[in-house]
Write a structure and sequence with these properties.
globular; alpha+beta; two-stranded antiparallel sheet; single chain; 201 residues
Length: 201
């Protein structure tokens, strides 16, 4: 249809051949499906770089502080920006032009009877006031699906396990390679790169 209409409007139509990886034809639909199904590693493979979202830090209920896991609540301004499926993720976070590791939760917080989808990130080795500031997140890996816990103590215990999982992920060679991709695609005045000797919880 486009090939017929283009000449009428003086438009040159150029057909771009499908991009393939490992003999799989890549499409935006496949990438969207991978992200909504929490298959972050597949999305990275298709995109050749970690999927990223940007947003502003807004005030939440500050529940994380009460259980020792303070989080930054993220408001994403683009209404049509694809948000990956519910669950806990390992992410890179760029804040104030520095790169940090983080643990992110996407979901409605069923343990505290939440009703709306929230995006929260616990930035490792970081404890500063960043309300109203902008940050960028890059998805590294999927940790686990969202779950409802019987108590806040049970949730706290699980989050401590999740943090250990995140730290283990960033020790891997694959994620170090992805981090270099982020460095090459996005410029920073300063990049704070933590060593892989993480402090004990």
């Amino acid at each position: 249809e486009l090939s017929k209409l283009a000449p009428q409007y003086g438009i040159q139509l150029v057909e771009v051949p499908a991009h393939t990886i490992d003999e799989i034809e890549i499409s935006s639909t496949k990438i969207r499906n991978a992200l909504t199904e929490c298959r972050v590693d597949t999305a990275i493979h298709y995109l050749s770089y970690p999927y990223t979202i940007s947003g502003t830090v807004v005030r939440g209920k500050q529940l994380g502080r009460t259980i020792g896991v303070p989080t930054a609540n993220i408001s994403v301004p683009e209404p049509y920006k694809l948000i990956p499926g519910k669950g806990v993720y390992a992410v890179w976070t760029i804040i104030r032009k520095k790169l940090f590791y983080g643990m992110m939760n996407i979901g409605n917080r069923p343990t505290v009877n939440g009703t709306s989808i929230t995006l929260e990130v616990n930035i490792l080795d970081f404890n500063e006031d960043i309300y109203d500031e902008s940050l960028r997140l890059f998805f590294s890996d999927f940790i686990r699906p969202e779950a409802k816990f019987a108590s806040l103590e049970e949730l706290k215990s699980q989050l401590q396990s999740d943090r250990q999982a995140v730290k283990s992920i960033f020790k891997g060679a694959t994620q170090q390679k992805n981090e270099e991709i982020i460095r090459s695609k996005f410029s920073f005045k300063t990049v704070l790169h933590h060593s892989h000797q993480f402090p004990q919880l």
